[in-house]
């Protein structure tokens, strides 16, 4: 089935398949688990409030930069203009967020397992944010599928 992008009808989307419910659920679950676990770790740790604020801000910045990068990559693939500076800044921004976490953890007075906990939950959250954004973007190509399926089922009756 060929689909076209709503804002650029000249770009066919026959290679983009509708994500399955299982993948959508797994993506949202991974995102929520990553964020909640990271935040629970911050809540329960014995850090100064300014350190907790630093790690919280790095998480929010990382999530935003990951979503921004996914959007700019997808826009380019679909033929939607993306300026080189924005595309480059998206990559740099994601790199900076990961670097900020790495430097913060390197200098933190935590046991190695706690540092690993924050690193893994951070990276899980970034990966899941990209997957969720991809699913949202893919589902936008199928706006009337549920309505069409319901109408077809009613016509069979």
Describe the 3D structure:
With 157 residues, this protein is mainly alpha-helical. The chain has a domain of 103 residues. 75% of the residues lie in helices and 4% in strands. It is built from five helices and two strands. The protein has a two-stranded antiparallel ribbon with strand order 1-2. The longest helix has 29 residues.
Quick structural gist:
It contains five helices and two strands, in the order ββααααα. With 157 residues, the chain is mostly helical.
What structural class do the secondary elements suggest?
A: mainly alpha
**Spans of at least 5 consecutive residues with low confidence:** none
Number of helices: 5
Shape: flat
Q: How far apart are the first and last residues' alpha carbons, in Å?
A: 25 Å
Average pLDDT, all residues:
88
Main beta-sheet annotation: 2 strands, antiparallel
Helices and strands in order:
Layout: E1 4-5, E2 8-12, H1 21-44, H2 49-77, H3 84-107, H4 112-139, H5 145-156
Antiparallel strand pairs: 1-2
Helix pairs in contact: 1-2, 1-4, 2-3, 2-4, 3-4
Features:
157 residues; mainly alpha; 75% helix; flat
